[in-house]
Amino acid sequence: MTGRITSLLDPSRITLRLQATRRTGALNEIARPLDGHPEVANYAGFYDELLARDRLDTTSLGNGIALPHARTEHVRRIVMAVGRSDEGIVFDDKGELVRLFFVLGTPKTKPGEYLEVVSTLCKLLRDPADRAAFLAAATPAEFIAAIAATEARLGL
Q: Are 54 and 60 in contact, with CB atoms under 8 Å apart?
């Protein structure tokens, strides 16, 4: 991990118009593009662990953002998929609406890399203006460009 979120992003794994209206459906829709990713050794195993982790405790960060993740032996390197819902999806018992999801798969053997990615995401998502830019991006390429611009401005 270079510290840059853009290094983990691929337009084919960014879904900007989620069709799902429920939490599990959204996770499936966001994570599905990781099936076949060269660094995902066993997608079914990864997805099962993602759902199991998500049932343990909310992965909502607040401000309409969630970070569903699994630390698993089913991925060789950190992988990420992004999903966005214009209406928002109820994601926890408090009824918070989540609009932006960053699904992460990280190797069990590299907890430091996982913490680095989470820390970087939190920095990128801190400013309301940046969050608004990520929510307004019309295409996956624009979304990645907005993330890159924020990384550059923050010196990440």
A: no
pTM (2 d.p.): 0.94
User: Looking at residues 12-35, what average pLDDT do you find?
Assistant: 96
| Sequence-ordered strand ranges (E) for the chain | 14-15, 60-62, 65-66, 69-72, 79-90, 97-107
Torsion of CA 43, 6, 126, 132, to 10 degrees: -100
* Number of other residues whose CB lies within 10 A of the CB of residue 38: 8
- d(CA 48, CA 118) in angstroms, rounded, equals 21
**What CATH number should be reported for the domain whose range is 5-154?**
3.40.930.10
Amino acid present at 143:
F
Sequence spans of domains, the chain: 5-154
Task: List pLDDT tens digits, range 56-96.
Answer: 887 888 899 999 999 999 999 999 999 999 999 987 777 88
